[in-house]
Amino acid sequence: MLAASRLCELLTEARARTLELVADLDDAQLLGPRLAIVNPLRWEIGHVAWFQERWLLRRDGRTPPLREDADALWDSAAVPHDTRWDLPLPSRKGTLELMAEVLERVLARIEAEAPAPDLTYFCLLAVFHEDMHAEAITYTRQTHGYPTPRLEVPGGDARDGGGPVAGDAVIPGGTYQLGGTHDLPFVFDNEKWAHAVEVAPFALARAPVTNAEFAAFVGERGYQRRELWSDEGWRWRDGAGAAHPVYWHDEGGGRWCRRSFDRWVPLESHHPVIHVNWHEAEAYCRWAGRRLPTE
Question: Where are any strands of DSSP class E within 126-194?
Fold first, then answer.
């Protein structure tokens, strides 16, 4: 069981990250263009507060919502995606104030109660939910070409030194437990419950596919070779007019760059390739004589 202080720390840290990710954006950017693959960010941060309030303050039915229209604005199961740009959302200031008040009340409740398994579960659900939205806010910024977010968390070493990690790791066959166990304070519903599975021996690449490896696939006309693509993948490629990963740009002479938020940077040879979809990954594997792993 996690201590109340640790639960408060996790919730506070998740909220700090959310706020950092939108702190530099203006009101127009917080709304953004209407796209099927992202949410308006002012709606998204309000939804994070709504979810936390719904499951940590209101789930017992004793506490009324801070706003009477909260469910009509932010319940993602009930509010169609395409309408979220048109809702009478509170202002940026009002949204941030709501987020602060919800978190303050949640922390006070945790500190006032010895967190039982039920409360611990919903605290962790709220943390992971907010973490997932932090990821969504990040890829929304990439989608729109907004500036690189300024985060207090120190970043890793982004230099392109070293080299690829070649070869496979050989995994012995046997009986493995797949899924979460009842002693854990939190598991997602699709992790319930642990059960034995028989796994045949297999080998798995020791590292993700790199930009350089994927560039070789592009250079050998991987996007033009029909035999490498499934029927569905070829339809996607044809409809999208894809000839390389979406954020890549060919500078000529075998030199690639990629868009990182609002900047174009030289493609880092040994970094894992990102922003490719299932169809592209599957076609690459067929070209490389590999296959995608399964669970």
Answer: 168-171, 174-178
User: Which H/E stretch holds residue 14?
Assistant: helix 4-22
Residue 227, judged by CB atoms within 10 A of its CB (0-12, 13-18, 19+), counts as exposed
- Which residues does residue 177 pair with via DSSP β-bridges, in sequence order? 196
User: What are the tens digits of pLDDT across the range 153-190?
Assistant: 665 555 556 677 889 999 999 999 999 999 999 999 99
Q: Are 99 and 47 in contact (CB under 8 A)?
A: no
How many angstroms separate the CA atoms of 55 and 118, rounded?
Answer: 11
Q: How far is the CA of 62 from the CAs of 48, 68, 70, 119, in angstroms?
A: 21, 14, 16, 15
Q: What is the pTM of this model?
A: 0.92
CA distance 21 to 11: 16
Measured in Å, how far apart are the chain's first and last C-alpha atoms?
29
DSSP-derived 3-state class of residue 10: helix
Which amino acid is it at 160?
D
Does residue 45 contact residue 16 with C-beta atoms inside 8 Å? no
**DSSP for residue 206:** S
198: β partners: 175
Residue with structure tokens 């954020």?
Answer: 247
CA separation for the pair 126, 102 (Å, rounded):
12
